[in-house]
Amino acid sequence: MITTQDIQQKTIADLFDQYPFLPGFFEENTLEVDGQINEKLDDFLNILDDEEEKENRAMDKAQVIESMAEYITQMLAFLGEDEDEGVNSITLLPGTNKSGEKEQFEELTINKSEIVCIVGPTGSGKSRLLADIEWVAQNDTPTSRTILVNGEEGDKKWRVTSGHKLVAQLSQNMNFVMDLSVYEFIELHAQSRLVEDVEGVIQKIFEQANNLAGEKFSLDTPITSLSGGQSRALMIADTAILSKSPIILIDEIENAGIDRKKALELLVGEEKIVLMATHDPILALMGDRRIVIKNGGIHKVIETSGDEQNLLSELERMDNVIQNMRTRLRHGEIIRQEDIGF
Ligand SMILES: Nc1ncnc2c1ncn2[C@@H]1O[C@H](COP(=O)(O)OP(=O)(O)OP(=O)(O)O)[C@@H](O)[C@H]1O
To answer: Where is the ABC transporter domain (predicted)?
Structure first.
């Protein structure tokens, strides 16, 4: 909540710096700053106490400052940037499994820049756990779990306001229907987020997306003609860089056409909490920890050991062989024993 005291004594230049959307308020209210950018807001607005001005605007200086503070507060909430926004951790408190038995852990806290994988047989409840986190469950889902944000009882604001979205979902099916180029798509999203350096953000997302995608694409490629891997790469880069949501939930990243290791590094590098449900051993071992789900409940939480991390590179090598086979078969080649290499 921004108060009139917070802004009154600051210069207009400082306020514009701090709140890049504020010039919009000045324009709307026909407040022309011109050469007075370095004046304190309070001094600048003295002109409004002039009788004629007061009549024209039907608002005096105090009312303008008040409405400006309100505008800043609302814009910050809309952009998901209020001061209390910083999410450093989420904590899961146990509920019950499908048989109604208490889950086998006491409390599980996941911090910023951590990757936690969720593994378990088909139908065991992996997606349900992701859904509980998205809903910031408060003992009000089929599992009776409770999710704390920064160690505190979840605030229901996370469920409703768009700017407050706690979670961004990356799902398997990302079909674009809009008739836009890659450039226009990112530009639209950047503008809706009111970022200052739209051009810089477009370049950054474009570069990162191409860094993840197997096959390169250009800024003028229509998004409808991106391949599955390219669209996923674009969405991951876009989410990592533009989404304000502190938590990313992933229901499996398909292997085709995307460098999954780099994708996770990009998300974690942007200080996100990443939770990923997966059946893939390589992804499961890329996490710092993995939650094992059994019969709807959290059965175990396992830290990825050094030995497992070493095994990961071996698994990646085997995966590369399979990927390579796939590409060659697709191109009509004949495979021989020596191609397999182990
Ligand atoms: N603790 C629970 N209590 C009651 N119902 C549950 C519980 N956990 C999961 N379920 C229900 O079990 C069903 C299967 O769960 P879910 O879809 O999450 O499985 P999954 O592990 O994601 O499966 P898949 O690997 O096939 O994607 C869902 O209907 C879900 O709501």
So the answer is: 87-320
Going by their DSSP bridges, the two strands 247-251 and 108-111 should be labelled as unpaired
Q: Are 188 and 182 in contact (CB under 8 A)?
A: no
The complex scores an ipTM of: 0.96
pTM of the prediction?
A: 0.72
Q: Say whether domain 84-304 belongs to CATH 3.40.50.300.
A: yes
pLDDT digits (tens, 9 = 90+) for 233-292: 999 999 899 887 889 998 877 666 678 888 888 888 878 899 999 988 989 999 999 999
Confidence category of residue 155, pLDDT binned at 50, 70, 90: low
Nearest ligand 1 atom, CA 129: 18
Amino acid at residue number 330: R
pLDDT at position 76: 80
* 127 CA distance to ligand 1 middle (Å): 6
Quick one: average pLDDT of 314-331?
A: 86
Q: 94 CB less than 6 Å from ligand 1?
A: no
- Please state, as a whole number, how many other Cβ atoms lie within 10 Å of the Cβ of residue 151: 11
How do the domains of the chain map onto residue ranges? Answer: 4-78, 84-304
- Provide the 10 A C-beta neighbour count for residue 185: 21
pLDDT, greater one: 191 or 96:
96
Closest ligand 1 atom to residue 97 Cα is 1
- Which amino acid is present at 340? I
User: Looking at the chain, how many residues does it have?
Assistant: 342
Pocket of ligand 1 contains residue 142 by CB under 6 Å: yes
Residue 80 CB–ligand 1 contact under 6 Å: no
Give the burial string for 50-60 (b: 16+ CB within 10 Å, else e). eeeeeeeeeee
Gap between the Cα atoms of 54 and 50, Å rounded: 6
